[in-house]
Amino acid sequence: MNLTCFVSLFLFTVMPQGSLRLAANGYYHDDGQPVISYKENTYRVFRRQRQTNGLRSEGGTKDVFETPSDQRSSSLSTRKTLVFFLLLIPLCFGLLQWIPPQSNISSPSVPLELSDSTIAVDMKTRYEELMKQLKEQQEELLWLKKKINHLLPKADMLSNFALESLGACVLKSSEPFPTETERLTSFGRRVRQRLAVTPSVVIQGQPHLIPGHCWAFAGQQGHVSIALSHQAAISHVTLGHISKASSSTGSISSAPKEFSVYGRKNLDDENIHLGTFLYDEDGDSLQTFKLLDHKKGVFSYVTLQVHSNWGMPEYTCLYSFRVHGKLAD
Question: Chain-centre distance of CA 111, in angstroms?
Fold first, then answer.
């Protein structure tokens, strides 16, 4: 190995970035510096190594150098890019200010403020409408309640111990008033017929009172005594008569007015006064009355005593009489 090769090898060993081929061909000086230097006007940049068909280094790559013209082109491209972004930023801010908020786009335009007088008038109108609707509903409920009470009287929801079908019976009563009615025969003649309605009709528990289907006694005062179906502690009594609306004449002057109720446990006992009541001629057909003191004992017999009627001097009619309470232990 000659001296030149030894020096080149030494320089290549000291300078790991040198090329062995260039050192062998005398590219470097004795001090290790390259013969041709571009330090003053170029700088060395290692780019991505690519495979070429030309001159290759030992590692299979080509050393690439940038010229001053490339440097100027890169600097100019960088400045253009910077200017572009500087112009783009204010443009973006202007677009953001121009776009209206999402809430304003989706919602219709409404007045932001309402005067106090407008709000007060609107609230007053709403209040009046609500009060009107409430009044109409109350009237409708009251009408429905009356219809229900008419269709289903309170007496129908209470047990009845003066019911003939359960074993109750009439013991004695006032003299019946002879009633007559006219009927047509098959030959077209009118014949007056005397009706004999017994007082037991008042304890048959008729669900609907039929005009004329009643027990009538002479005068304005009379009585009827009933043996109850079971011993009971009496709490209510019900007296029935047709209403004015059901009467063909529009009057119920034969209806009882003031009456009293008495009770006995045994036939030989004295009557115990249970209460005196007033039947309302303008009320419902079946009117239920509560005894003020229903804890007077247990009774097996009840007497209804009528003191007056609503104006008929000849007779008084009884359609229904019911006794309510609790079965004795």
Answer: 34
